Amino acid sequence: MTVAIIQFPGSNCEYETKKALDFYGLSSQIVTWNCSESELSQFDAYIIPGGFSYQDRVRAGALPAKLPVMGVLTTAALQGKPILGICNGCQILVESGLVPDLNQQQHIQVALAPNQSQGKDMGFICDWVYLKARYPKRNLFTRYIDSEEVLPIAINHGEGRFVYSEETALRLSELAQFQYVNELGEGVASYPVNPNGSMGNIAGLSNVSGNVFAMMPHPERAYKLDQVPFSVGSTWSMQKEDTFSEKESKAGPWESLFVSLAEHLTGRSSFQLQEAHL
Questions:
Q1: What is the tens place of the pLDDT at every residue in 210-239?
Q2: Total domain count for the chain?
Q3: Is residue 277 scored above 50 in pLDDT?
Q4: Between 20 and 30 A from 50 (CA), which of 70, 83, 244, 257?
């Protein structure tokens, strides 16, 4: 059971992502955006990694979302295959309409805008933030995450602000999400807790069926305990200090995301896709 990591011109996190998958025993292969449809269709799951595909021209994710490769991923999504988009991958999934869900009009329901706080342009942000999961059981990737747990994670983006209409907000209200919080788990709408001004503090969003997830932060940069900086005020940094002298790296705060994918692909667990559509 193999995961395809799709490399676009400008991707720069594909090897980090592969190392995370290797750490959890997942077989993966980096494939280029222009590989044949027959080759790409053979994979069991897909990850679109972070980076700056096509230099973020027009807007982040806009160009790759229109390429033929996304037709293969659309078919895969409808077949129930797991698809994860990280940072630039998140932008691509949103631009393609795979998140929050495919619809007859194929129009974009959610957009990712430049980072902003209280009307001020925040530019590119590289930092560590905290997330909590909302309705995690409703997505394959998040189902093992405790909704009360506060998870540290790295962000690196200039266009990560989720925006949507009031009508769409009602549709998103029951989908699995990651939301920006402070280290106590409290949602604060302003910077630095919400680093980019996302509506609803959203950092990641599921599709309706629950097999596709798009997230701006980088779980592949926190899959091992030794990746978490001591400056992050959480139990994870304290655990790192306790095990700092040990030679073998231990699993980090984003273990459950990769374990869930691994167990799903090996048949050690099942996930019931939702039937509802937006």
A1: 999 999 999 999 999 989 998 887 788 888
A2: 1
A3: no
A4: 244
Which residue is catalytic, options 14, 95, 159, 220? 220
Give the active site residue among 90, 218, 255, 264: 218
Half-sphere exposure of 257 (CA within 13 A, CB side): 28
CATH of the domain at 196: 3.40.50.880
pLDDT band at 247 (very low <50, low <70, confident <90, very high): low
Residue 175 lies in a domain: yes
Tabulate helix, strand, coil % of the chain (nearest 5).
Answer: 30, 25, 45
* Active-site pick, 13, 14, 87, 90: 87
pTM assigned to the model: 0.94
Whether 150 maps to a domain, the answer reads yes
- Domain span at 130: 2-266
**Strand, helix or coil at 57?**
coil
CA dihedral 37, 40, 44, 47 (to 10 degrees): -120
Q: Which residue carries 């200039």 as its tokens?
A: 158
220 catalytic? Reply is: yes
- Clarify whether 264 is annotated catalytic: no
On whether residue 165 sits in a domain, the answer given is yes
Active site residue 37: no
